[in-house]
Structure formats: C-alpha cells, structure tokens
Design goal:
The protein contains eleven helices and 13 strands. By secondary structure, it is of the alpha/beta class. It folds into two domains: 108 residues, 3-Layer(aba) Sandwich (Rossmann fold), CATH 3.40.50; 158 residues, Rossmann fold, CATH 3.40.50. It has a seven-stranded mixed sheet with strand order 7-6-8-9-10-13-12, sandwiched between helices. It has a six-stranded parallel sheet with strand order 2-1-3-4-5-11, sandwiched between helices. The longest helix has 30 residues. The protein is elongated. The protein starts with a helix and ends in a 16-residue tail after the last helix. 45% of the residues are buried.
C-alpha cells in the first residue's frame, strides 16, 4: 500500500511539473522579445529567362546561392520588360520584400539611383535597392547599393585576343542595346586591338536587342561577307544566332558571361565569364549589418573568385596568341594596364 501511494504521488507531481513546463514554454514562445533588426526578403528582377545559360542564369544562380547560404527568403521575376519593371518591383514590395535586386542596368531609371531622381528608391525609402552600373553614381541615394560590373576591363582582353587571332585584319564587336557600358566595352576592345595590331580594322554594330538570335545571326552573316574573321559578342540570347552564323566557317568568336565552348567548339576562342554570387553576398551582408548604401566593384582576375575573369587558355588560336593574351590578362588584374570607362559612342567603324 505504501509503495502504491508513493507511486500515485510521484505521477501527480510529474503531471504538475509537465504542466508548468508547457505553460512556461507557451508564455516564452509568445512573449519573447522579437529578433533585432528587420527580417529581410530579397527579390530579383531578371530581364530574360532564368535558364538562358547566360546573364539571367547567373542572376538566378547568385540568388539561389544567397538563399542556400543564409536561409533568407528569396523570389525572382524573369523576362521582365523595362516598361514593366517598376510595377513588378512594387508588387514584391507590397508582398513584404524589402531588398530588390535589379539584375540589369536597363532597370536603373525605374529605381532612380541618385537624389535628383523620382524613382522607386525615393518612393520607398525603407526598401533597399541593389542596382547594377558600370561607374560610380554621383549623389547616390541612401537606400541604393551599386554593383559595378566592370565590363570594359574584360573587353580590353577580348579586343587584344581578337586582334591577335585575326588573319584577315578585320574584327567586329556585336552588341545588343547601345548603352554606356557597351560603348565602353567597344572602346576598350578598340584600344586593345590597336595596341597589339595597329593595322586591324574594328567594326561595331548594335542590334538594339540583347535577346534576338535571328537579328544577330543576320548581322554576323553580313560581317562575314565583309571578310571579318573574329566576332566579339556582347549579347545574351543573341549570341546563339552569331554561333549559328559562324558554324561551318573558319570565323572565330568570343562570348560573355558563361563558358559557351560546347556550342561552337571549332569557332570558340574564350569568354569573359562572371560569377555574381560573390557580389550579391557582399552587398547582402552589408545590408544585414545596417548599411543600406554602398558601392561594390566586381574585381577582375584569372579565376571565379575574382567575379569577372577571362577563360584561359584560349581555344582555336596559336600558343603565341594564348601566351600574349595571358600576359595582358595578368597585367589587367595587377593594375599595370588601366582601362578607362569611355562611354562615348564609337560609331560603326572601322
């Protein structure tokens, strides 16, 4: 009898303790202090499709890496036209996204990067906008981060490679929309080409569409007819039209953003490759630390850790060309060669 009484007392006491713990847990769960600082949600605006194996894929991969590394809530909209960008950003803001990354300089007008602009950055001061440019912005708004893509330095190396690889003395730059960055790319390529081959002729053309393979193919075919034997592409989906034009010919091609050697193995020289994940993580960490404004220039180097890099060794060229370009790339990375951001329209050439 004694043992039975003790057992009942022990059970009753245990029940009371469990009840106290449960009540305390509920009280703690609903009455604990909220975490310090705002909860971040990051949305990206992509100008093309996320599976384009090009610029937009790099944006998607960077956003995915950020989510996997930090657990932050992310979302993205793909194939967003410039006139629709503002509406799409406001939809995300309405859904609680407080960090908006516009992956493409064509969206900067909608954001309004400087204090004189009346874009979304002025309308939503509590939202941090991440924009992409190719030079610092004067009077940058306090809730705007800048990622400088540093395009011209890579196109200096591309221009040198094209001028050293040509056998006809005629090379060409094909771009999409003629924006300041593409003018700067073309000017850097011209500068480098002339420095290694003073007699080379450099043609320039803009299709007014980064994602038009048919238009890019037509223009590439016209250039091939002029005797051009190296084409420097600065397009997105348009590059696949250029590759179609050079297929079955001896014309060589350089590309941008990703390794595209498998698409034209006999014509491919190199690519100015990018990894945006380092830049996005840097900016995100700064925002978490309370810095809603800043400037990050993607460094140029010889590997993915740099953010922007020339794929080496070169394909389908003589070893002497590869060695010369490798030296130039190393000089660019070391700062021995300085490439200005010259956005003056260079004209069609040559």
């Amino acid at each position: 009898m004694r043992r039975k009484a003790i057992g009942r007392t022990t059970i009753a006491l245990a029940i009371v303790i469990i009840a106290i713990i449960a009540v305390s847990s509920v009280y703690f769960l609903y009455n604990q202090a909220p975490p310090s600082g705002p909860t971040l949600k990051v949305a990206a605006i992509l100008p093309g499709f996320a599976n384009d194996a090009d610029y937009n894929t790099l944006g998607y991969l960077a956003l995915s890496a950020l989510h996997n590394q930090t657990g932050v809530v992310t979302a993205y909209a793909e194939n967003v036209a410039v006139p629709d960008a503002g509406t799409k950003m406001e939809q995300y803001i309405g859904n609680g996204y407080n960090v908006i990354w516009a992956h493409g300089a064509q969206f900067n007008t909608a954001i309004g990067l400087d204090n004189k602009s009346n874009g979304l950055a002025a309308k939503y001061p509590a939202v941090t906008f991440i924009a992409e440019t190719d030079a610092p912005v004067t009077g940058q708004r306090s809730n705007v981060w800048i990622i400088d893509r540093n395009f011209p330095i890579g196109y200096y190396a591309i221009g040198a490679a094209a001028a050293l690889a040509t056998t006809t003395g005629k090379i060409a730059y094909i771009g999409g929309v003629q924006l300041p960055f593409s003018n700067a790319e073309a000017n850097a390529a011209i500068q480098a080409a002339k420095s290694v081959n003073s007699s080379v002729q450099v043609y320039r053309y803009w299709s007014n569409n980064f994602n038009d393979p048919v238009g890019a193919q037509t223009q590439a075919q016209s250039m091939i007819g002029l005797g051009i034997d190296v084409i420097m592409s600065s397009t997105n989906l348009g590059v696949f039209g250029i590759m179609k034009a050079v297929n079955g010919t001896s014309v060589l091609i350089t590309t941008k953003y990703t390794d595209k050697s498998s698409y034209a193995p006999r014509n491919y020289i190199t690519s100015y490759e990018y990894d945006f994940s380092v830049a996005l993580r840097y900016v995100y960490d700064a925002i978490v630390a309370g810095n809603d404004n800043g400037y990050y220039k993607i460094p140029f180097g010889t590997s993915t850790s740099a953010g922007g890099f020339i794929q080496l060794p070169l394909h389908n060229v003589a070893s002497t060309v590869n060695d010369r370009v490798t030296t130039i790339v190393n000089q660019l990375a070391a700062g021995t060669i300085v490439v200005p951001f010259n956005s003056t329209a260079p004209g069609p050439g040559p």
